[in-house]
Write a structure and sequence with these properties.
The chain is mostly helical and 94 residues long. The chain is built from four helices and no strands. The structure holds zinc ion (ZN).
Length: 94
């Protein structure tokens, strides 16, 4: 029970950081300790790991798209962004 609660808290915490982790946003970097905590949780949590993989998929798709066309189609980028946002925020606010 305590374990489940702890996992839930970690999931909530991680969900809010996965996108930042993926973006490696230089203006809002994860602290080393936070990155470590996130990695540790991802290693044991299938749900958050799947979320990270989903986000990586979107990012990779964007990169591939940009390479192929010399620039991404804005409408498609917006759609993928929205999808990525849903992936990273969708579970946090329940
Ligand atoms: Zn989790």
């Amino acid at each position: 029970m305590i374990h489940a609660l702890r996992t839930m808290i970690e999931c909530h915490w991680s969900a809010r950081r996965i996108q930042r982790h993926l973006d490696a946003d230089p203006s809002a970097p994860l602290a080393a300790a936070d990155a470590q905590r996130l990695e540790a949780h991802l290693a044991v949590c299938d749900r958050c790991d799947a979320e990270l993989s989903g986000g990586r998929g979107v990012k990779a798709a964007l990169a591939r798209f940009g390479e192929r066309r010399g620039g991404p189609d804005p409408a498609r980028v917006a759609r993928l962004r929205l999808q990525a946002q849903r992936l990273s925020h969708g579970q946090g606010d329940r």
